[in-house]
Amino acid sequence: MRTFLFLLVSLLAAFVPSATATVLAIDYGSDWIKASLMKPGVPFDVLLNKDSKRKIQSSVGWKKDDRLFGQDAANLASRFPADSFSSTKLLLAAPYDSPAVSYYKSISSNEVVQTERGTAALKRSDGTEWTPEELIGMEFAYVKGLAETMAGEKVQDVVVTVPPHFTQFERDAIVDAIEISGLRTLALINDGAAVAVNYAMTRNFPEEEYHIIYDAGASAIRATVVSFLTNDAGQTAIQVHGVGFDRSVGGTELDRRLREILADDFNAKHKRDIRKDKRGMAKLWKEAGRVKAILSANNDAISNVESVAWDIDFKTKVSRKALEAASSDLQSKFAQPIFKALINAGLSLDQISSVIFTGGATRTPMIQTAVKKAVGENKISLNVNADEAAVLGAALYGASLSRQFRTKDIKLTDINTHDMQVSYFAAATSPNAKPRTITTSIFPAGTKTGSKKTLTLKRKEDFRLNLDYKKESVPGFPTRILEVELSDVKEAIANLTEAGAVDPVVKATLKLSDSGFVSVSEAVAYGEVKSIAGKLKGLFTGSEDQTVVDAEAAPESEKKEPVDGEKEEEKEPVPNTIPLKLKTHFTTIPPMTVEQKKTARSRLRAIDADETAKNRREEARNTLEGYIYKLRDLLDDDAGTGPFTICSQDSERKAIARQLEETMEWMHEKADIAETSQFLDRRVALETLERPITHRYVEREAFPQALNNSQMWNWSTRLFLTDARQNLTEEAAQGLNSKWTKEELDALEKTLKEHETWLNTWVEKQKSVKQNEDPAIETTEMRARAKVLEQHLQKLYKRPAPKRAKKKKVVEETVKKEEDEKKAEETTQAEQAKETPHDEL
Ligand SMILES: *[C@@H]1O[C@H](CO)[C@@H](O)[C@H](O)[C@H]1NC(C)=O
Ligand SMILES: *[C@@H]1O[C@H](CO)[C@@H](O)[C@H](O)[C@H]1NC(C)=O
Ligand SMILES: *[C@@H]1O[C@H](CO)[C@@H](O)[C@H](O)[C@H]1NC(C)=O
Ligand SMILES: *[C@@H]1O[C@H](CO)[C@@H](O)[C@H](O)[C@H]1NC(C)=O
């Protein structure tokens, strides 16, 4: 299938002008990162890491000053647990005191600290603190680097997958991480939808089909009900209908339980508490992942960890049964998201064609068994790549957004997963009324992304719209997403009233973006200006509550901008909408501010710059080292027959030997603290002594060839001249046109003589030069001079034969020829004569 996709995309991409159309897709999981690059001319596939692996561990770490990624970073945990960061996704936007942070602490031994935003950050052993956005930003930057190596150019635009249940807080954090990494967010895509796109890429659906994408990942299990329908025009519509999820189950939780088994076993066997040893626990974490993978295919696994702690080698046998027993409380949760998704979609299981498995944890037998039992084995479909379907789908989605590719025509409509509502404070308008907060559902779960809704509010003063989740969307996360302050209301309403508007109102447009973000996208004061304004006045003045949402309390769907009063505009050229000022306040979990992102970005840049400098220094040091060895070999010529010895003088070799010895001593003492420029300077100093000698024997080798070349052109030119002059004479005798004039041949002869004289003089000089002296003439100059001669010769040699339509002789003999015909001929000849000298240029 991969091949097919490759063909599809690359063929289509070929039709597109080769504008820079590179799109990167990242499937960011809490255990693994998968990435894919979409670029015309580059095979569409999953990006490989430097070890040619198709997936990269979601880890970053430091070994002293060296930053590591992927498996290298994860492996550090067993030696430097404080400096290896994995599962960071679990901490995104999590309030410091939330269960998400406690859970992270139960699986990781990293030190967690609180940020000024109230979220969690991680502390390295050197005391520096890193937010999850920064750590993930580094991982994204690492992937960006791999993609750029592959693409051979800068890569900027990225689509990143997120679980459908991710809140706005978490989505904001991902977008911040992308920005910190130096990438640009093209879109976020829910991973279930991404798998659906991948599924539709190679299939057509003449009849509508419903499928469930069942995604068991590390940090959650989610199910997405999706319909597919291909219309007559060939467009496939993908529509998400419902999502179910459970954040308390997934691969990470199974790892945790398995590690508990190992830890208990260790403690029982060795009468010590392994849980007190960070390195030991980190080693057992890695081992738990390994054992889990073995237990996916076997009933038992032997666990064997050398020197897990206190120099104890730990060996035990774990059975699949033991893991399943330890996870018995989870069993009922595995299939639940499917049923929740069906309820949200308003569908029943028998309407579903298949349950498509994706995500690494679908390999775990107890999860497979639970789902098979719940939906029936015949419904299970294993025909997408569990690891790569999401990233490939995200890449195709990104390609469709960039409009630079012609991919299969797919229209994706996704939905939001959490109920969203809007609330605002209504002040008392009469002495008897009480102020109150009015709440309206705005985007209930299941609302299509890309929707807009407009609220009509009778307000006369500035006020705030609060956007909230109806319920706590993640344990310990707030419900308030953001607050939007609308200002200039009083003045705008007054201006409208003055213009003759009756009971002007405020209209606020709320938007649910394709990437799942809610915002107030626009707000205006709006009033209808009518000529019979006086009559209508007072109609609304009795209403006791002026702050209620307008007549239709439920917000209206917006098909088009509803605020332009087109009809009125014809009669009255008075504008009847006035834009209001909007200011967003984050009162709960704020995304990073521009300033914070700038700081983070420069922190990352500084690390990159350090690493680049370090690499350059390493390279300079290695090159110098290699050069020293090479020189030692050159000098080490006891027989005295090597070209280096033959082409050098005793004094020169002595000077090099002295310099070499000094440099070696310096390397020994100073190399570890020296700067890049010192390595470079040292090399230059040696090269200055060595280069002329090497040059001598390179020249010696090249000389015969160069001389042969010079002589060859000398010889060819001479041959040509003899021949050409002879022909010229003959042709002149016959009154025929010639290719060349005498002057032209004379000029060539002059060039030839110059070349010959130079050659004779300098070849003579070169003869007296000793092998260990610098050459008198350089072969480059010999070749350059021969070239001059060659070009001069070629120009004449390649000239086409002159036109000989009518021979002059014939014309002279044909006495009867008419006068004007003769004249015409003479003109032609004159022209030819004129043209000839021009050709010389
Ligand atoms: C109201 O009208 C005044 C005078 O034309 C103008 O200066 C002001 O900007 C207007 N205010 C708003 C909010 O449109
Ligand atoms: C010079 O070039 C000719 C023709 O290419 C070749 O036959 C001859 O061996 C060459 N002589 C030397 C010294 O390279
Ligand atoms: C150039 O060619 C001429 C004629 O072939 C020859 O007499 C002369 O020695 C050549 N000169 C050199 C420097 O090769
Ligand atoms: C001289 O004339 C002969 C006969 O036409 C021709 O083959 C030869 O190529 C000519 N020589 C040059 C240098 O043009």
TrEMBL record:
<dbReference type="Pfam" id="PF00012">
    <property type="entry name" value="HSP70"/>
</dbReference>
<feature type="compositionally biased region" description="Basic residues">
    <location>
        <begin position="795"/>
        <end position="809"/>
    </location>
</feature>
<dbReference type="GO" id="GO:0005524">
    <property type="term" value="F:ATP binding"/>
</dbReference>
<dbReference type="InterPro" id="IPR013126">
    <property type="entry name" value="Hsp_70_fam"/>
</dbReference>
<keyword id="KW-0143">Chaperone</keyword>
<dbReference type="GO" id="GO:0030968">
    <property type="term" value="P:endoplasmic reticulum unfolded protein response"/>
</dbReference>
<keyword id="KW-0256">Endoplasmic reticulum</keyword>
<dbReference type="InterPro" id="IPR029047">
    <property type="entry name" value="HSP70_peptide-bd_sf"/>
</dbReference>
<keyword id="KW-0732">Signal</keyword>
<protein>
    <submittedName>
        <fullName>Actin-like ATPase domain-containing protein</fullName>
    </submittedName>
</protein>
<feature type="compositionally biased region" description="Basic and acidic residues">
    <location>
        <begin position="810"/>
        <end position="841"/>
    </location>
</feature>
<feature type="compositionally biased region" description="Basic and acidic residues">
    <location>
        <begin position="556"/>
        <end position="573"/>
    </location>
</feature>
<dbReference type="GO" id="GO:0140662">
    <property type="term" value="F:ATP-dependent protein folding chaperone"/>
</dbReference>
<feature type="region of interest" description="Disordered">
    <location>
        <begin position="794"/>
        <end position="841"/>
    </location>
</feature>
<dbReference type="GO" id="GO:0034663">
    <property type="term" value="C:endoplasmic reticulum chaperone complex"/>
</dbReference>
<dbReference type="InterPro" id="IPR043129">
    <property type="entry name" value="ATPase_NBD"/>
</dbReference>
<feature type="region of interest" description="Disordered">
    <location>
        <begin position="547"/>
        <end position="573"/>
    </location>
</feature>
<feature type="signal peptide">
    <location>
        <begin position="1"/>
        <end position="21"/>
    </location>
</feature>
<keyword id="KW-0547">Nucleotide-binding</keyword>
<keyword id="KW-0067">ATP-binding</keyword>
<dbReference type="InterPro" id="IPR029048">
    <property type="entry name" value="HSP70_C_sf"/>
</dbReference>
